[in-house]
Amino acid sequence: MPYPLxxxxxxxxxxxxxxxxxxxxxxxxxxxxxxxxxxxxxEKRQRVLASYRHRRSNVAAPREYREAAELIRDxxxxxxxxxxxxxxxxxxxxxxxxxxxxxxxxxxxxxxSTALKDNVRLAAKQQRALAVNLVLRYxxxxxxxxxxxxxxxxxxxxxxSLHNAAHRVAAGHWFWNREQSGGIFIxxxxxxxxxxxxxxxxxxxxxxxxxxxxxxEQSRVWASVIHRSCxxxxxxxxxxxxxxxAGAELLHEYVPVQYYHGFTMEADAPESTRWEVHCAxxxxxxxxxIPQRLYVEGMLTAEQAEQIDALLDTVPTxxxxxxxxxxxxxxxxxxxxxASVSDRASSSFVSRLPYQRTLSLVDRQGxxxxxxxxxxxxxxxxxxxxxxxxxxTPDDAVSDLALAEACMASEVWQExxxxxxxxxxxxxx
Length: 429
Description:
Layout: E1 8-13, H1 17-26, E2 32-38, H2 42-55, E3 63-65, H3 68-72, E4 79-82, H4 89-98, E5 102-105, H5 113-126, E6 130-132, H6 140-150, E7 157-167, H7 178-181, H8 184-200, E8 202-212, E9 220-238, E10 244-265, E11 272-279, E12 282-287, E13 293-300, H9 302-312, H10 323-334, H11 338-346, E14 353-360, H12 364-384, H13 394-406, E15 411-414, E16 419-421, E17 426-427
Parallel strand pairs: 1-2, 1-4, 2-3, 4-5, 5-6, 7-10, 8-15
Antiparallel strand pairs: 7-11, 8-9, 8-17, 9-10, 11-12, 12-13, 13-14, 15-16
Helix pairs in contact: 1-2, 1-12, 4-5, 5-13, 6-8, 6-10, 8-13
C-alpha cells in the first residue's frame, strides 16, 4: 500500500521535558505536523503544546489525551513518537505498530535488546518504519571523527575513553528505578555505545562496574569494552621479477575503550562530556554532550594534514539538519584509501610535521535541535523508501542495547566498603 508523502501527522505520547523540546525542535520542519499529545497532567501537555506553537503559529489546536494508548488509537495519526519512561517503550511500541503507526522511540527503545528486537521484527511484518532516537551520529563533528578513524588519518587507534559527568537527578525520579529505566547504561549510555561501535568496531568483550550509594542509587558506573574493527588493507607486494601484483589483507584491530558516566554534579556545577582517542600519530579530543569542540593534534605528513583540514572545512558553521550528511558525502567521494595514507605516513623516509587544529561549533541548542531534526527526517526517508533503514538502523539500536546489557555492573562497590560480584561478565562475539 503506497504511503502518503509528508507532512506526517504526528502524535507525541509522553509529555515530559524532552517531549516539549522535541515538539519545538521539529515544529519548523514542513514534514512534521503535531496532531496530538498525551500526558498525565494538563500542565505537562500544555508545556508541550506551547513549545510547538511558539515555533509554528496559526495551526489547529492539537488534541490532548491523558493516556498514551488513547493517542496511539487515534486514526488520524501517522507517526507516534514515544517519549515515555523506558519500561513503557515495549508495550506501547507494540500497540502503535499493531495500530499501523510508524514509530520513533526515545532511547533506549526497550529495557532489553530482546524486547526491542521483537518490535523491530513486528515493524517489518507490519511494513512500518521504526527508529530509536539515537542522535549523536547526526552531529557533524562525530561524523568527522568517524572518517578520520576509518581512514587512519592519525594512524591506527590504540585506546579511547569517554568521560561523561552529568547533573544529579532528583531522588525518587523514575531514572533511579531500574525496573523503569534499566539503569544508567541502558537509559543513557546507549547514546555513546552507538558512537563507540561505529568509531571502533563491534564489541567483543565487556565488563561493567558501579558504585552504590547509601540510598541505593548507582550514580557512578563505568565499563571496559574491547572493540574489534575489520578493515581491508590494500597493499602491493614485491615479486622476484620487476613486476608487482596487488593484494588485500583483512586486518583485525582491537581497541580498548573505557566508558564512564557519573550523575553526580551539583546543579550549579558545569557538566562535561569528553571523548579522547589515542592513535599512533596523535590524538583526537571531542567535547560536549552535544558535541561542540573538536581538537586534533599529531605528527602528520603533509597529505594527512591536508586531508584532515579539508574534512574539517566541510563542517557547516551554523546548525543544519543535513550537516552530517554533507560531511559524509564529501568524505565518501574525496578521501584517499586509508591504506595508502597509512603506509606512506609510516615510512621512515616521509617527513612529518606537528599538526594542531581546533574546530568549535556555537549555538548548542541550535545543534541539538538540528540533530533531532536529522533523526526525524531520517525516519521520514524510511517511511518513503522501504529499502532505507536509516543512518542509525533498528539493528544498530538493538546492538547498542545489547552492549549496555553486557556492561551492567559485574562488580559493585558500596559506600560502606562492601564489594560484591555477579556473573554478568559477558563475552560478545
